[in-house]
Amino acid sequence: MPGGQHMTCKELVELVTDYLEGALPDTDRVRFDEHLQGCPFCRTYLDQMRQTIRTLGQLPEEAIAPEALAELMARFKEWR
Amino acid sequence: MNVTSHADAPLVDALKRRDEAAFVQIVRQYHGQLLRLAMVYARSRAVAEEIVQDAWLGVVQGIDTFEGRSSFKTWLFRILVNRARTRAQREGRTIPFSSVWDASREPNEPAVDPDRFLPATDRDWPFHWAVPPKAWGSSPEAEVLARESLELVEHAIAELPPAQREVITLRDVEGWESEEVCNVLGISETNQRVLLHRARSRVRAALERHFDLE
To answer: What does the alpha-carbon distance between residue B4 and residue A73 come to, in Å, rounded to a whole number?
Structure first.
């Protein structure tokens, strides 16, 4: 139950980001860790969140198109 | 952060001296990131590119007044965000940006469908998993899966509400610190965390829907 002594799975999934951000108060952090120890499902859930974050970090970045760069350089020269 | 202690400081000085090579280098370094953020505000790819070009002109026009009270990166992205938001306003579009986002006026958005948990009345395990997540693991086609995941994640981000999309783009896609994100978007740490949490939860759910179908 929220705020109760033992953390529920439903409560845990809402605290994952605070947990990963180190923003949980100590008491909640302890309850979170205790729950994780005994709950393989929530460990899977936390894993999936970590995998999600890793995948987000792997999205490729686009390089500037040559025409766009040429146009910018032209403006830069005008300004100079 | 003072710019003199920042990695971009030499580039900024060169830019102030109208050094062309420095300009090219800085454009190459940040263009992709700017474009990705601009896509949050723009209705089309073409408009996003215009917004980025516009931001670069803002840099050129404003570099002499840049005093390094923020990092160059923060300053640059603030120019982009301001111009993009102004443009949306001018076009009469109201985008619910993170800067005007108010948790108390938003509907509650559970990270996981509440039906996946046992009810409060369950004798043994109230609010514990009824339909738990299945491990995604890694498969022989890990590489194919990874490529698929990237496409899925790209798509999932594009579907997010703008306020969530702004935050997750800078935090998780670009890997910024939360303080930088708050500075550029003009939001509190708390709102940033709530938006990040909702965004991540939605993207995870999108991946789960995909993997569960396999």
So the answer is: 26
pLDDT digits (tens, 9 = 90+) for B182-206: 999 999 999 999 999 999 999 999 9
- Token pair in block for residue B56: 């670069």
Measured over the CA atoms of residue B142, residue B144, residue B145 and residue B149, the dihedral's sign is positive
Ordered by where they begin, the domains of chain B are 3-90 (1.10.1740.10), 98-213 (1.10.10.10)
User: Which candidate from B24, B57, B204 shows the least CB-CB separation from A48?
Assistant: B204
ipTM: 0.91
DSSP B136: -
Give the global pTM: 0.90
**Neighbouring-strand partners of residue B117:** B129
Sign of CA dihedral B201, A16, B98, B55: negative
Cβ within 8 Å of residue A52, ≥6 positions away: B153, B200, B203, B204, B207
SS (H, E, C) B4-50: HHCCCHHHHHHHHCCCHHHHHHHHHHHHHHHHHHHHHHCCCHHHHHH
All residues of chain A having their beta carbon less than 8 Å from the beta carbon of residue B61 are 79
Condensed to tens digits (0 to 9), the pLDDT of residues B119-134 reads 999 999 999 999 999 9
Q: Which of B32, B127, B136 sits opposite A62 (nearest CB)?
A: B32
Domains of chain A with CATH codes: 9-79 (1.10.10)
Q: Which residue type sits at A48?
A: Q
Residues of A in contact with B17 (CB under 8 A): none
